[in-house]
Amino acid sequence: MAKMSIKRKRTLQYFIDAAKEIIEKDGANQVTARKVGELSGYSYATIYNYFNDLKELLAYCALDYLEKCSKEISSIKTNGLDIVSIIQKYNATYFKFFAENPNLFQLVFLEDLGDYPTQLLAKTAEPAAGYLLLKHLNKSVEEGIINKEAVNIIHQLNISSIHGKLLFFNNNRDLTTMTEVIDLINKEVEFMIGGIKK
Question: Under the phi-then-psi rule, with left for phi > 0, alpha for psi from -120 to 50, and beta for the rest, what region is 126?
Fold first, then answer.
């Protein structure tokens, strides 16, 4: 969006904000060009001057939510914390964000958005939540806390566990509370780091 005119950028944001309002209230499957047009104050046909289709509009919304989540994680103070505590804090913030907003989880991780998310993520300067985690894992390698070979394993196990638990939690397939789920994720982190420390 950097090369767009201010007016075009503002109009595009009106459409994104309108779509997000629908997503947060009713879910991504309720987003239609007509509803977005009504909420944004434009003709629904105008949307297609800014987006190729509704999938692209939804991808912009998904990116906005990912950036919001990443900013929350970026704001966590990590000075003086060990790697386990940092990952646990990141995980808790990430889990709460999507557990408290199941419609956002559905949009970001379960909706078919085509190739748009990949294209848009390549253009953003915002650090993704996964990048922040990897940064601390790599720092732990430099400090001699974990092996270099363990970084990708920990990262993949961690994100798989969180997303799997979110899927069950948000679909009421798990009767545990949010606190209980986060406690379990914390124990998994302790096990992963403790099990593959140098």
Answer: beta
Bridge partner list, 197? 146
DSSP at 110:
I
Give the DSSP per-residue string, 142-162. Answer: HTTSB-TTHHHHHHHHHHHHH
Q: What pLDDT, in 10s, does the model give residues 35-67? A: 999 999 999 999 999 999 999 999 999 999 999
Q: In Å, how far are 15, 34, 70, 163, 195 from 133, measured between CA atoms?
A: 32, 40, 11, 15, 18
Q: Minimal CA–CA distance to 98: which of 187, 14, 159?
A: 159
Tokens coding 159: 């994100």
Q: Which domains does the chain have, with CATH numbers?
A: 1-51 (1.10.10.60), 63-195 (1.10.357)
Q: For residue range 171-194, list pLDDT tens digits in order.
A: 988 778 999 999 999 999 999 887
pTM of the model: 0.88
How many CB atoms lie under 10 A from the CB of residue 15?
24
